[in-house]
Design a protein that fits this description.
195 residues; mainly alpha; membrane; transmembrane; PAP2/HPO_sf; Phosphatase PAP2 family protein; transmembrane helix
Length: 195
Amino acid sequence: MFPRELILTMPYIYLWFSQKTPESRARLVAGLGGAILSIGLARLIAHFAPFEVRPMYDAASGFHKLAVDRAADMEGWSAFPSDTAAFSIALTLGLFTVSRTASVALTLLSMAFFGLARVYLGIHYPLDVAAGWLIGGLAAALAQTPPIRGLAGSALRVEARAPPLFYACAAMVLTETGQMFDNVRDALHLLHMIA
């Protein structure tokens, strides 16, 4: 199945090859870093905040259990905050300094499909999604500060010195980012169970 979040990483590839200036490429790398940061922040908050049952598992909410492959995986995860909302907003806002048109269009699309739709389906409460959007926006803004963008410049140095290594790693990072690091999360969950 095609991961829906991968749609949000495709503009990064397009802009990487169409906007070849070091500044715009550093901003794109920082934008991806902001998306990764947003997932980490959302999961950290979810870990320390009180557990919140998802509406689809709460009989009093009026929602019915959603019939999706990963619905069983969601039962043990707190609904607050929405890491999907945080991730998608951070990823789309990460494009803002390179392509405002793409960023605004994708942000609106993201808010509809990765935010409001999740409320409608009973995956999250409205506050869960709003908190996710706030986390994503803060992560995207933080990622575009000069010190963080300076770190992104390190990736450009690797690309200049060792393009095959850079693009192999970039393909892996973009694939995992487009899947919200599901493979990494599954591996960490397995390690946690073993330990």
